[in-house]
Design a protein that fits this description.
Residues 24-143 form the Bacterioopsin transcriptional activator GAF and HTH associated domain. This is Bacterio-opsin activator HTH domain-containing protein. Keywords: Transcription, Transcription regulation. InterPro entries: BAT_GAF/HTH-assoc, HTH_bacterioopsin, RNA_pol_sigma_r3/r4-like, WH-like_DNA-bd_sf. There is one protein chain. The chain has 217 residues and is an alpha+beta fold. The protein folds into two domains: 3-144, no CATH class; 146-213, Orthogonal Bundle (Arc Repressor Mutant, subunit A), CATH 1.10.10. The protein contains seven helices and ten strands. It has helices at residues 18-22, 90-96, 120-132, 157-168, 180-187, 191-208, 210-213, and strands at 3-10, 27-36, 39-47, 64-73, 76-84, 99-106, 110-117, 138-144, 146-147, 154-155. The strands form two sheets. An eight-stranded antiparallel sheet has the order 4-5-3-2-6-7-1-8, with helices on both faces. It has a two-stranded antiparallel sheet with strand order 9-10. The protein starts with a strand and ends with a helix.
Length: 217
């Protein structure tokens, strides 16, 4: 059964860490991670700042070959980077392991990741890789994915918990009866993590219900 692991890693451990020193109020969210021969190519969003030169916010790093802005919308910047695969770090561990990155959100305090493996063995291999290469991670949760009413789609336990609690607290009501801040506090997670869980949970539900029902038969 597919297994999900949530873990944290120090902000300084990630090659993007310098952006938090230069722009401490930003949030970085991993969009895609593409392994390519000797390189790892991540796409990620930098949110929460307006600047004329976002690329200058990233200091040179031995593991980073190139970094550039792909697009931007107001205070949100989509970035593309090129990492050397031989540089040991969280990014190389994610690329080498047979896991799917469900979410990766970084602040000046830490990075929070949620990854999915085909089973517990895959997750164990990822953990061992990090241990063998002295990559600091702190595991906060490990659980199996749970199907919800019907076949063909699944939510993680954390996504299900967040969606149900947000519904019960009136977050989806008009006007809203609860805020992201209050729900995140109840779950003991950051607002960024809650926002990511809700967004990804919505995507799974819509993809498996509305979108799938509209496909031609």
């Amino acid at each position: 059964m597919a297994t999900v692991m949530e873990f944290t890693s120090p902000a300084a451990e990630f090659p993007l860490g310098s952006v938090f020193e230069n722009l401490p109020g930003v949030t970085v969210e991993l969009e895609r991670l593409i392994p390519h021969q000797t390189l790892i190519i991540p796409y990620f969003w930098v949110r929460g700042v307006k600047t004329d030169d976002i690329e200058a916010a990233f200091d040179p790093h031995e593991g980073v070959q190139a970094i550039q802005m792909v697009d931007h919308i107001e205070d949100q910047y989509l970035m593309r980077a090129e990492w050397q695969q031989e540089y040991f770090g969280v990014l190389s561990a994610l690329a080498k392991a047979n896991v799917v990155v469900l979410s990766g959100i970084g602040t000046k305090d830490e990075w929070r990741f949620e990854v999915r493996g085909e089973g517990q063995e895959t997750i164990a291999e990822f953990r061992e890789y990090c241990q063998d290469n002295d990559i600091p991670i702190e595991i906060t949760a490990v659980h199996a994915m749970l199907p919800i009413k019907g076949e063909g789609y699944e939510l993680t336990e954390s996504q299900r918990e967040a969606l149900i609690l947000a519904y019960e607290r009136g977050y989806f009501d008009t006007p809203r009866k609860a805020s992201l801040e209050s729900i995140a506090a109840e779950l003991d997670i950051t607002q960024q993590s809650l926002s990511s869980r809700l967004r990804r949970g919505h995507r799974r539900l819509i993809g498996a219900t509305l979108a799938s029902s509209s496909k031609p038969t």
